[in-house]
Design a protein that fits this description.
Outer membrane lipoprotein wza fold like, elongated, six-stranded mixed beta sheet, wza like fold, 361 residues, alpha+beta, 27% strand, single chain
Length: 361
């Protein structure tokens, strides 16, 4: 009996390349779709001339997105950024974590050392594909940014999560403040921006250079930025900018009042004792307004100065109202107390330190 034919249109070996190409193209399509969500590569095996089909999509667990970020198209790579390069046909490169060195270069097997800093992810894909054309006819390359480290911005002061944040592309001042969790309730009205002159002067009318001549410094109103009253102040933030949000001046009212806490002073604003008492929603039933006192810090002294104030006379219009300064504590004791001892005053300071801060705008 003649041996079976191994060639011809109907032979297994003739069909195998066609099937293989279709399976490989399917694997490439799956890889390209799932590259940015760190999907596990689809494995297709072949034994004894037969193909092992990949598992059905419904049986594959959802891929993890914990380690791969999706950068905006405008994100420019830089030193210390980490990327994952996907090339379906080259195991030495595909699905490997690689970090751009401090010179801005990326060293890839087969492709060699190439400049990555200053390129977007799609531009880097094009550069890698060009290097790999000597090995593959039409290389398919996907680059995913897994760690953003080349565009840090420091956000300090009265924000929810101060610290170093990454720009991850083009961001405005408002967007960076949002990334820092927004302003705290005790935030002041001034936001200060410091920028290296390597990025030019800050495009604000009040920008000036510091004494070293290496930085541009400017400030904007937090109300203006948050309320969008002056779009020109919502500037584009550059890498390595330092953003400092001032802490507002606060006066406190504690003791026998209905709403004890701290109350923010507006810019160039002062509050009187009766105004602060009004913000604290008045006295409660056990208050002793005639024994109230203002506790004020004195420069160079550890203890606060105590100023006696008879709120009962003030409310009756028999005495002039007293203005409070930033950091003052208006303390109204309980009428059950026989005297206001030093211990009570110290307790008032501790209460004010942990009191809630109320914005009035």
């Amino acid at each position: 009996m003649d041996s079976p034919r191994l060639t011809g249109r109907g032979s297994p070996l003739a069909l195998c390349p066609v099937v293989s190409r279709r399976v490989v193209m399917s694997a490439r399509t799956v890889l390209l779709v799932t590259a940015l969500v760190a999907a596990a590569p689809v494995c297709i095996g072949q034994t004894s001339g037969h193909l092992e089909a990949a598992p059905a999509p419904a049986e594959v667990p959802a891929p993890s997105t914990a380690n791969v970020a999706s950068p905006p198209a405008s994100y420019i790579l830089g030193p210390d950024d980490q990327v994952t390069v996907f090339v379906p046909d080259i195991e030495e490169i595909s699905n490997k974590l690689m970090r751009i060195d401090m010179r801005g270069d990326l060293n890839l097997p087969l492709a060699g050392r190439l400049r990555a800093a200053g390129l977007s992810a799609s531009q880097l894909e094009t550069e890698i594909a060009a290097r790999l054309r000597k090995y593959l006819k039409d290389p398919e390359v996907v680059v995913a940014v897994t760690e953003f480290r080349s565009q840090p911005v420091s956000v300090l002061g009265a924000v929810t999560t101060p610290g170093v944040h990454q720009l991850q592309g083009r961001k405005t001042l408002f967007e960076i403040l949002s990334m820092a969790g927004g302003l705290r309730s005790d935030a002041g009205n001034t936001i200060r921006i410091t920028r290296s002159l390597a990025w030019g002067d800050i495009p604000l009318s009040n920008a000036k250079r510091d004494s070293t001549g290496q930085f541009s410094v400017a400030s904007v109103s937090s109300k203006s930025v948050l309320n969008a009253t002056d779009p020109a102040e919502n500037i584009i933030i550059k890498p390595h900018d330092v953003i400092s949000v001032s802490k507002a001046d606060v006066v406190y009212c504690v003791g026998s009042v209905n709403k004890p806490g701290g109350f923010i002073l507006g810019e160039n604003e002062s509050l009187s004792a009766l105004q602060v008492l009004s913000l604290a929603q008045g006295l409660n039933k056990t208050a002793a307004p005639e024994k109230a006192k203002i506790m004020r810090t004195v420069a160079g002294q550890a203890n606060r100065m105590e100023i006696r104030i008879d709120l009962k006379h003030l409310m009756a219009g028999k005495a002039p109202d007293l203005p409070l300064k930033a950091g003052d504590i208006l303390f109204i004791p309980n009428s059950a107390a026989r005297s206001i001892a030093a211990r009570t005053a110290e307790a008032a300071v501790q209460i004010a330190t942990g009191a809630a801060i109320y914005a009035r705008y």
